[in-house]
Amino acid sequence: MTNRVLKHSYTVPCASAFRDAIEALAARRKVNVGDLARSILLVVPPETVAAYEDPGEPLNDDRETVVLKSGPAEGRPWRRKPRLQVRMPPGHDIPFIRKALALAMAMDCGDVTVSVGAGHTEPEPAPPPRSEADETRLVEISEELERLRTIVSVLAFDPLPEGIRSRGDALHVLGFPPSSEPDSRTVRAKFRMLATIHHPDSHYGSHQRMSQLNQAMEYLRRHVA
User: Fold this and answer.
1) Rg, the chain, Cα only
2) Staple partner for 186: which of 81, 133, 145, 182, CB 3.0–4.6 Å?
3) Which pTM was predicted?
């Protein structure tokens, strides 16, 4: 059995307006704040994230009131910095996470776009032989990347207001180009992967999205050539 990639909970102090905007974006996209940050790290090079402007910590007069739930001062109000709780793999610093979230918000607003190029064509030296532990770790990373790629595609997916009315609609909901011709095995595999995300009992569950996934599969079954 492959172990899951461990996550670390970061407390990220930030301006209350920034926190509210990020939480609203995550709720609108039906993901959590950590998924927004990890999705950016999947498609944007770390050096680009590091060079982006840090929204910074809250000003001295930007505080929120919370009631202490334990300790000698239990029940008393306490003024603290606004913050975001972000679950991500360990190893990131707080300013870097704030920058990734700021990029997510800028991309959502259309202020920043991602361009994918061909890259360098120079040959790379052959990698050294990998151990069994390396292979296991690569499998874990591959699974995590595949999940994050799915989340990235989910961020751009809005349920069709008129439901599934054509083969193109069905393929769009399942994440294929409308003109593509995926075989039944590929379609079923994509459905199972998306269903694990959109099932109402999952962390990213959505009745509307799950319903359209089922409609898309039913349409393709009834209209198979």
Assistant:
1) 21
2) 182
3) 0.50
